[in-house]
Amino acid sequence: MNTFMTTWRKHLFEVGRRYRVLESFKSATSAFVAGEILVFQSAEYSRYDSNTGFIFKTENGETKAVGLSDSAEDMSEQRFSPVD
Fold it and tell me: pTM of the prediction?
């Protein structure tokens, strides 16, 4: 049984759009560096984990992800800015 689905959470990301990382931080699986440009790929929700995963690709094709639990404050606007 697949426990992943599109997230219920409202967020600033649009699939295919580029985002600049505003501050360096680490997630459980990835390190994000201030100034790097990422392309948003998807947002997936796990009912089992009560967690939304935001998936990005770097300019060289590396996948990076950051998770956000249902009870956590969304820091996306402080950490990412759309690139025009």
Answer: 0.82
